[in-house]
Amino acid sequence: MKRYIFRRLGYALISLLLLSLTIFVFVRLTGDPTVLLVEPGASRADIEALRHDLGLDRPLWVQYGAFMRNLLRGDFGSSFYYRAPVLELYLSRLPHSLLLATTAMAFSLLIGIPSGVLAAVRVNGWGDGAGKVFALLGLSMPSFWVGLLMILFFSVYLGWLPSSGSGTALHLVMPAVALGWYFAAAHMRLTRSSMLEVLGSEYVKLARLKGLPEALVIGKHAFKNALIPVLTLAGINLVIMVNVAVVVETVFAWPGIGRLLYEGIAFRDFPVVQATVLLGGVMIIAVNLVVDLLYAVIDPRIRFQ
Amino acid sequence: MHQTGSLRSAFVAIVASAVLALGAPAGIVPAAAASAGEATWALHISLPPSWLDPAETPGIITPFVVIYALHDALLKPMPGDAMTPSLAESWSSGKDGLSYEFVLRKNARFHNGEVVTAEDVKFSFERYRGTNAKLLKDKVREIEVVDAQRVRFRLKEPFPDFMTFYATPATGAAWIVPKKYVERVGDDGFKKHPIGAGPYKFVSFRPGVELTLEAHEQYWRKTPNLKTMVFRVIPDESTRLAALKRGEVDVAYSITGALAEELRRTPGLKLQPTYFTFTWWLSFLDMWDAKSPWHDKRVRLAANHAIDRAGINQAAYLGLSKVSHSLIPQAMDFYWAPPPYTYDLVKAKKLLAEAGYPGGFEGGELSGDMIYGSAIGEPVVNYLQTAGIRIKLRPLERAAFYNQLGEKKLRGVAGVGSGAPGNAAIRFETFVVGAARYAYGTIPEVDDLFQQQAKELDRKRREAILHRMQQIIHDRVLVAPVLEPAFLNGSGPRLEESGLGLIANHAYSAPYEDLRLRK
After folding, report:
1. Could you give the count of Cα atoms lying within 13 Å of B320 in the half-sphere of its Cβ?
2. With an 8 Å Cβ cutoff, are B235 and A159 in contact?
3. Is B246 close to A159, i.e. CB distance below 8 A?
4. Closest approach of chain B CAs to the CA of A294, in angstroms?
5. Residue A65: strand pairing partners
6. Residues B107-146 pLDDT 10s
7. Strand, helix or coil for residue A84
8. Which partner from A161, A272, B6, B393 sits 20 to 30 angstroms from B373, CA to CA?
9. What is the pLDDT of residues B459-487, one digit of tens each?
10. What share of chain A is helix, strand, coil (3-state, %, to 5)?
């Protein structure tokens, strides 16, 4: 088991190293950020001074060396645009992203799981049809569009909810629904297929033959087993929600990591993009590592492969 | 059966309550009402901490949204005067153009109660490291603190643009910070809790999210009317408009196109265009190549007559922009008004035929940045094609466009825009004269005149030289100016005076102490 753990940790470190190199090179392929930080009419001297100030006049390998050295000390550099430590910015936004992601996840599970169960229980019936329509809409409607429609309807026409920002529970409702909508549809589909598989299994048939009430068969015997893949997916989706809510956070002016990443990309703020992508990568790799280790604990065959 | 029935009943109940809820009268939950004496601005661009410190003023105008509130300058643009004495009650310059003296106001105080002194002025200038810092500092030999209320700048050589750089948003060097406080807390500490001499005091700041300020009651000019000001960053313009409609914000910056039309139609909201020294023009990059059709002046003149500037203005800016005939903005110092180019398709085609292109020609590409290159560039391409100039639009990401333009990698025609503050000479230095970053060719006569004006201390003679330069540019048809795009904003019903457009060439609300809520 120890060897297995060390091997997985080694893979994780290699992945992070490759990610750091990839993101470092890719952001620099987008061009010179100094042009975005000054007016087009700025003098050559101003642009050169800014380039020097940001350390962009040094060779690429020197910049990468400095980036990695600082990274080992836990320093992600200073934002070009904010002129503040990136880690400080990231940590100030992280709680907002976590709050939004957990609420959106709760919404997606509350909608996705019951509707998935209903669709499976009433397969090819009205519940299943409604579920399919819901899944189709959820997976095909872009979240920014859902967001804008919600703002128009619930903020402008009805005046029920604040259009944007953060601070109260009401501010959280629309961004969480807009973000969770897609995932609710995904969870609904997975719950449905998982439930259908379980409902067709021998032990469920046996439970029915024994004459157990249908609610007990579905709720106790089928539902619990069908939930395992859904919750595994939900764990990974939660990390994705924290890191990729770029559009939703921008539409609702929600001060999370996604908006920070959007600003980083818009202003070619290399340190911000590098840090958000890298820390997002750390989260995803960590979750995958935990999942791998849990699988190994559950299934001994994996440990011995 | 029973189970199915329960599920169905539950579903019906949920739908019924949703329908009832949706049918409830609008506004049952009141919109976020602002507290008395408070107003909120929805910003279109993220707020970095560096904007709280005038020493770091970058070469863009947006930081002045905050600087005008927190800080004050010796002189600054105010309603009716582009160089209004503010912290300085008066100023004078030596006849030799080698010295400038400023007398400070006795009643000007920083937010911590300290009086603004000549030492603070000297310290702020020396500390300044923002846009054009080197250019300005290279000209100054020494700064003399004559007494607590009097400061004198001595220059190395006469510099006619000293006041343009020092006393306008061309730099942030004249915006004064408290020396003792900055020395005590350091640069980072200052950005975390800035203290200035402006009409509003710092309360709280979440970088990129929200800035809250409160009135500085001892402000020398007057006690501000609004008690609290909040600047909220709302990146999406549809959301900004929704927030304005709902009364969550009182001013929303940058609402464009169809949304601006929607704003104009909404009762209670006001569409308020503002202007700054921004011009968008076509630069004929290939005109310096003798083999290119663009080398022929008649072709460039044809392009100018082929564009319906008023039509583009109406379609893209609801007619609120200014039609342009020069790369120098109309409100900029030393502007010369050229004879306007009429929209005359027949004349354009005739000129092309005279130049040897009766059937038109392949004009190459029109490169431009994504925003203005598309909004204005696209109709321009259509007009040119109608005249027979077959040209393709090539929109590029802003940084990529200006990079390639500066590195002289583009061909054909470029749609160039600039909102850099200053005067005509400063704009020529960047876009026209031989050594300019974005100039693809040079006219020796223009270069000579540029050198002459740089040494000319007599304003009238200097103006005549700069006008002559503009005349040559017009005669040689170096560019096809199109528009001075308006900056479209909205204000809500609570504000009686939003401050939008009060100061000429300032795109944002100001002066903040003059803003008023409706009673």
Report:
1. 18
2. no
3. yes
4. 37
5. none
6. 999 999 999 999 999 999 999 988 888 889 999 999 999 9
7. coil
8. A272
9. 999 999 999 999 999 999 999 999 999 99
10. 80, 0, 20
The CA distance from B85 to A117, in Å, is: 73
Q: Which H/E stretch holds residue A294?
A: helix A270-298
Residue B22 contacts by C-beta under 8 Å, 6 or more apart in sequence? A158
A25: CB partners within 8 A, 6+ apart: none
Instruction: Specify the pTM.
Output: 0.84
How far is it, in rounded angstroms, from Cα B102 to Cα B118? 9
Mean of the pLDDT values across residues B448-455? 93
Mean pLDDT of A200-222: 85
Hey, how many other C-beta atoms are within 10 angstroms of the C-beta on B494? Answer: 18
Report the residue of A27, A38, A43 to disrupt the B interface, i.e. the one with the largest count of B CBs within 10 Å: A43
Q: What is the pLDDT of residue B122?
A: 97
φ/ψ (deg, to 5) at B417: -130, 145
- Estimate to the nearest angstrom the gap between the alpha carbon of B363 and the chain centroid: 32
Judged against a pLDDT cut of 90, whether residue A211 lies above it is answered with: no
**Mean pLDDT for all residues in chain A:** 86
Q: Which residues of A touch B402 (CB under 8 A)?
A: 35, 40
Q: In 3D, which of B355, B415, B342, B341 has the Cα closest to residue B389?
A: B355
Task: Please tell me the predicted confidence (pLDDT) of residue B10.
Answer: 38
| CA quadruple A247, A251, A256, A259: dihedral sign | positive
A260-267 long-range contacts (CB < 8 A, ≥24 apart) are A260/A89, A260/A90, A260/A93, A260/B208, A262/B235, A263/A81, A263/B46, A263/B208, A263/B235, A264/A79, A264/A81, A267/A33, A267/A36, A267/A37, A267/A80, A267/A81, A267/B46
> What's the angle, vertex CA B418, arms to CA A50 and CA B232, rounded to 5?
75
Give residue A266's Cα distance to chain centre. 20
Supply angle C-alpha A67, A73, A78, rounded to 5.
50
DSSP 3-state of B393: strand
Look at the block and give the residue holding tokens 């004078």: B92
Q: How far is B467 from chain A (nearest CA, A)?
A: 20
**CA separation for the pair B142, B162 (Å, rounded):** 14
* B259 touches B237 (CB < 8 A): yes
**What does the block give as tokens for B197?**
């001499």
pLDDT per residue over A95-112, tens digit each? 999 999 999 999 999 999
- DSSP letter, residue A6: H
Evaluated on CA atoms B75, B77, B83, B89, the torsion sign reads: negative
The residue count of chain A comes to 305
* Upper half-sphere CA count for residue A181 (Cβ side, 13 Å): 23
Count of CB atoms within 10 A of residue A302's CB? 13
Q: pLDDT band for A173, please (50, 70, 90 cuts).
A: very high
Taking the CA of residue A158 and the nearest CA in chain B, the distance in Å comes to 4
Report CA B382 to chain centroid distance, whole Å: 28
- Contact assessment for residue B111 and residue B195, using Cβ atoms and an 8 Å cutoff: yes
Q: What's the mean per-residue pLDDT of chain B?
A: 90
ipTM confidence score = 0.81
Contact B242 A215 (CB under 8 A): no
> Are the Cβ atoms of B418 and A164 closer than 8 angstroms?
no
What is residue B178's three-state secondary structure?
Answer: coil
* C-alpha closest to that of B263 among B501, B493, B500, B506: B493
Contact B508, B488 (CB under 8 A): no
pLDDT band at A227 (very low <50, low <70, confident <90, very high): confident
**Beta strand ranges found along chain A (DSSP E):** none
Look at phi and psi of residue B128 and say left if phi exceeds 0, alpha if psi is from -120 to 50, else beta: beta
Rounded (10°) angle between helices B444-455 and B424-431: 140
SS3 label, residue B38: strand
Radius of gyration of chain A (CA): 24
Q: How far apart are the first and last CA of chain B?
A: 64
